[in-house]
Structures are given as C-alpha cells and as structure tokens.
Amino acid sequence: MKTAYTGWMWVNQYVGNPEPFRSQFIQCVKELSYLGYDYLENFPFIRRHFTASEVKKICSQYGVSMSALYCNLSEGLDELKRDAEYIAAMEGNYMICSSQNWPKDQGLDCPVDQDAVKKDAFLCNELGTYCREVGIKLLHNHHSYTTVCRLPEIDEFARHTDPDLVGFCVDDGHAMVAGVDMVHLLKTYADRIEYVHVKDLDPTLSWRGRGLSWVPLGLGTLDIPGFFEVLREIGFDGIVCAGLPAGCEKINHFESARLSRLYLRSAQGL
Questions:
Q1: How far apart are CA 172 and CA 150, in angstroms?
Q2: Domain definitions of the chain by residue range
Q3: What is the pLDDT of residues 38-83, one digit of tens each?
Q4: Which residues contact 246 (CB under 8 A, 6 or more apart)?
Q5: Residues near 126 by beta carbon (within 8 Å), at least 6 away in sequence
Q6: CA separation (Å) from 202 to 91, 177, 209, 236?
Q7: What is the SS3 assignment for 135?
Q8: Which of 2, 62, 64, 161 has its CA 20 to 30 A from that of 91?
Q9: What CA–CA distances, in Å, run from 7 to 10, 178, 245, 257, 263?
C-alpha cells in the first residue's frame, strides 16, 4: 500500500486569493513530502490557481505525485468533465466524487431516496465513461450525510453502476458515522475498492457537529488495526489516504499530518 494525505486544509481559506493560495499549496507539498507521504489529494479548486503542468512540476520537484481530486456530484456533469481533464493533465489517477450533501436539518434516520440514488448512479456511469476516455478512473465515496452514505443506498448505487466505470473509495470514519459495517462493506465490494480514506474519531468531541470529530490517526477510538487487517485480507494494495478537515488539526496541519504518518509507519508498516 502507498500513503497519501489530503492537502486542502493548507489552502481552502485562500481560494480566490491567488498569491497566498499558491504559496500555501507549495508549502503543503513540501511538508507532506518531508513527512514521507507518497501522494497528495486535493479539491478541484486548485485549477483556479494552477495549471495542471504547474501542479505536476511542483510535485515532481519534491518527489510526490497528486493521486486524485475530490469532487462533488452537485458540480454538474460539464464541470466534472473539466475536472477530469485537469486530473488527467496533471497525471493523477483518480477522480473521487461524493454525492450531494444533505440539508443541515436532515438526519441519518431519514428514508432512503431511491430516485436520488439512481440519479447519482446514472450520472456516475456517464462521468465514469468520460473519465476512462481521458485516462483516469472515477471512484465514488460514501461520505456521511449525502445521498449515498448508508448501506441500503450504497447497495442500490452499486446495483445501478458499471463496475468497469465506477469504483469505490471507502472510508472507515464515514462508515462508522453513517452506521455502516466496515468489514461487511470491504468484503462485499472488495473487487470495486481502489482507494481508501482512513480516519480516526473521538466521539467525546462535538465541535465539528454531526459526529464528525476527526483526530489524527491513533488518537481516537476507531478500530484502525481491524480496518487494515481486513484490507490486507481482501488483497487491497492501493492508496491509503489520511487527512483532517480544517478545524480538526492537532496544533497545526503539519503536526496532524506528522502524527498520522507516524501511526501509518509504526503501527501499519506503511
């Protein structure tokens, strides 16, 4: 397995402000390379501030690569296609997408919206076809509090998507928040899993809301060793990506990334 880290925390507050955005992105690349991550992941807003060739050159300079951009299906097909072209041009491998976010007052006890799930599935089939044409792979991520996050929704989405066009990016943290049995998910969809987001969570913290109190790996209560045990059991040998949203960092972004990298190296041998 290879390691990655989400780098949007360094730059998201500077979107639309080119000079600090560019400076902080370069700082992010330097720091994550120094910590020994193999890949970086980011949001598609980086294409507002860098050409794909600039991203590729900066990453190459520091010995890392961009693995993926994380997108949302609410962007619409035309914008997502432009994201796919950018990912291919910077020599990334994946577009990771999540479904549209629920309204803030919608809880996990709401009924499954099968029509919305099918709509996302059909969109992903079309987008996945385009991704294949430009040389990357589309992956869907079951982010909690989105159209496709609970097991019935994941199963329905899987039934209506072509495995050759749409793979899965699984996430132990969002599975736990949404009440999904991670072991069952890994074993059921082993042949579609091409990328992993790994998180840890401290349920005693409430400052993120909706149970999303993420902490650096090894500092929370999730069964990360069990997660990796099943990954190895199913023969997963892809990219394992850690990261925290802004506001969840331990001291600062670098320190959070360092603690998670230390865990991946010492506890999992990565």
A1: 13
A2: 2-268
A3: 999 999 999 999 999 999 999 999 999 999 999 999 999 999 999 9
A4: 8, 9, 12, 13
A5: 77
A6: 36, 11, 12, 26
A7: coil
A8: 161
A9: 6, 24, 9, 9, 18
